Amino acid sequence: MPELAEAREAIVAAGQRLDRFGWVPATAGNISVRLRDGTVAITRSGGHKGFLDADGVIRVGLDGRSLREGDRPSAETGLHCGIYRRFPEAGAVLHGHSVPVTVLSRLAGESIRLEGYELLKAFPGLATHAAAVELPVFDNDQDIGRLQDAVETRWGGAASVLPGYLLRGHGIYVWGADMPQALMRLEAVEFMLRCELEARRLS
Amino acid sequence: MPELAEAREAIVAAGQRLDRFGWVPATAGNISVRLRDGTVAITRSGGHKGFLDADGVIRVGLDGRSLREGDRPSAETGLHCGIYRRFPEAGAVLHGHSVPVTVLSRLAGESIRLEGYELLKAFPGLATHAAAVELPVFDNDQDIGRLQDAVETRWGGAASVLPGYLLRGHGIYVWGADMPQALMRLEAVEFMLRCELEARRLS
Amino acid sequence: MPELAEAREAIVAAGQRLDRFGWVPATAGNISVRLRDGTVAITRSGGHKGFLDADGVIRVGLDGRSLREGDRPSAETGLHCGIYRRFPEAGAVLHGHSVPVTVLSRLAGESIRLEGYELLKAFPGLATHAAAVELPVFDNDQDIGRLQDAVETRWGGAASVLPGYLLRGHGIYVWGADMPQALMRLEAVEFMLRCELEARRLS
Amino acid sequence: MPELAEAREAIVAAGQRLDRFGWVPATAGNISVRLRDGTVAITRSGGHKGFLDADGVIRVGLDGRSLREGDRPSAETGLHCGIYRRFPEAGAVLHGHSVPVTVLSRLAGESIRLEGYELLKAFPGLATHAAAVELPVFDNDQDIGRLQDAVETRWGGAASVLPGYLLRGHGIYVWGADMPQALMRLEAVEFMLRCELEARRLS
């Protein structure tokens, strides 16, 4: 688990990479890392995640509240902290907006099925391409507390939960043990969703 | 409101970002900022907006006329100044050309409807994704004065006007209180229009 | 008209920009500039046009023959020189390969019609978007002399010829008075062809 | 044939270029070079191929086994070494994942036919666009030994074999005499497959 300074660097760098892909348009998206002391470093509300500086990253408690007066954390901080509370092994959370995520989530029901892709191996417990995953899709909701409840209901008490989900017409949440793993999983899902979108156009 | 030197930097940087996205191809597009003294800094006619230097930005009055002999402002200066005159809160105007804007505007009638997108929150007065906006589309016209009249007629005397519109087969105009807000709104609209284009292909 | 050193810089920079767009894949494409002494600076055969250095640019006469023993000019030098001989005002020629050019030229007959685009103003004599241009398409041919004959036959003795044409399944040739104008025209045509490709998918 | 240090530089640079195109997402893909002493430099298992440093490249024998205790070579090392053993002229092998490769291989039977493209000239023995190539497609398989057997069966004892093949839903393998030639061939195939994908959408 990193200290705040190291976490800030990782978040700033992640924001640049996500921006290169066009996944944090128009100040959308947010990025967080769990710190050694159990609190969370997360992007501040409103800034463009592609051009973060150290000031653009603040600390919040596991309850989502900022730890310094005047700091306004990202609007969806509750979703990040919900992931950290439920999954002790989660060390970094990425939230981005991509065109495939936005378009496919609007067409989907409760989940999007991905199968037959080599990149499915990016998910824990899937050492082969012959498996399939169901990527959960939730209706968007401006009430973050209510949205987090819906997410936790879907997770239930399962021992093993897929480290990602989609918000309809909004974006994707992906997490991992650390930033490199979270980035790797996000790249894998975005790649597979781009393939899905292309394949559907051919029907 | 910035002074000329600061405005020039903002315009040069905005041009580079728009060029990175492919939104200012072939010397098309133009960018302006309202200055502290009430005049307007705007890109000079004809240069490539992706490679501007300080010389590529000149000053015009609110009537669109250049303030220095020999300076030729962007052809569409009248549209920028029309926005600054009508909306005192407007501090920066961006005009770009993208493939989704060009293709969708040619297929559209008087407007393009955007709904259900989280990024609609980029527009003033829309704090939820559950709203819809109608993005006005105007027929292209080489007579800028006549075009500006058509735009003002559509705006009418409304208290609240969407800070953007499309010119058919040509491009998009978006504005904001300052350059970061204008850039953010342009990114948001371009993202949603990319989603619209992708979604239509799946029909 | 530039000297060799200046022309080399312009060609190297143009190659980098074309590579950024993906328009010079796999050592394909070539770039030339007319020099002050009437000879032509052109990319050497075989190198990747995205990573040129000064050595990658050699001199040929207007007849297409290299002026230094051992220099192998680009395979399609005859097409570049054919343009320079026919059009005294031509100062730079760009040849690239893009996906829209390749796909649309394979579906086209003798030409591709572009109309209603603001960017048509990039072509000489077209000050309005209300015009239309017919972009000539020629069957590909490994015999460059025969191909140049076909091109000259289509040009005929017309006073005004569109400064560009397509080779089926191969690529595009565009020229201008200098490198900035050639680059501007190439960007404009590539943009419009991307729009055409997107629009056709919606049918 | 290079020494290890030179091979490492070539592999690191190739990884950056492939990452720029989005061809090595999520730690997928792998890159190798045959060394002067007959062994092979190959990317280590698990790292992101877009951000390699010298440590990310290790040495293996022609049998695929790492030459230093503790080094874990890329999972698909057996496929790289199978190419080096069968083709003495092969000096570099690239394995990437692209959206066109993934989507088209899932729709294909035993091969994908490419014809009429100028870029077919990137393949040995094809000096004209009028030829056609059949790009082999193999079912994906986590058992690399079994997969290599299937590949060698398809190659048979033919004097001339196309320097590339696809793994269904997985990715592409391409090789050449050295890294520049391997990169050039990969760019050519990826370009033609992007054209194929676009063309199929228009049907």
TrEMBL record, chains A, B, C, D:
EC number: 4.2.1.109
Keyword Magnesium appears in the UniProt entry: no
Cofactor: how and how many bound: Binds 1 zinc ion per subunit.
Ligand binding (Zn(2+)): H95, H97
Pathway it works in: Amino-acid biosynthesis; L-methionine biosynthesis via salvage pathway; L-methionine from S-methyl-5-thio-alpha-D-ribose 1-phosphate: step 2/6
InterPro entries: Aldolase_class_II_sugar_metab, Aldolase_II/adducin_N, Aldolase_II/adducin_N_sf, MethylthioRu-1-P_deHdtase_MtnB
Cofactor(s) needed for function: Zn(2+)
Keywords: Amino-acid biosynthesis, Lyase, Metal-binding, Methionine biosynthesis, Zinc
Coiled coil feature spans: none
Domain Class II aldolase/adducin N-terminal: from-to ranges: 9-197
MF terms in GO: methylthioribulose 1-phosphate dehydratase activity
Superkingdom per UniProt: Bacteria
First-tier enzyme category under EC: lyase
Catalysed reaction, written as an equation: 5-(methylsulfanyl)-D-ribulose 1-phosphate = 5-methylsulfanyl-2,3-dioxopentyl phosphate + H2O
Any Pfam family: Aldolase_II
Entry-linked NCBIfam families: PRK09220.1 (NF006672), salvage_mtnB (TIGR03328)
Function: Catalyzes the dehydration of methylthioribulose-1-phosphate (MTRu-1-P) into 2,3-diketo-5-methylthiopentyl-1-phosphate (DK-MTP-1-P).
Protein family: Belongs to the aldolase class II family. MtnB subfamily.
Listed name of the protein: Methylthioribulose-1-phosphate dehydratase
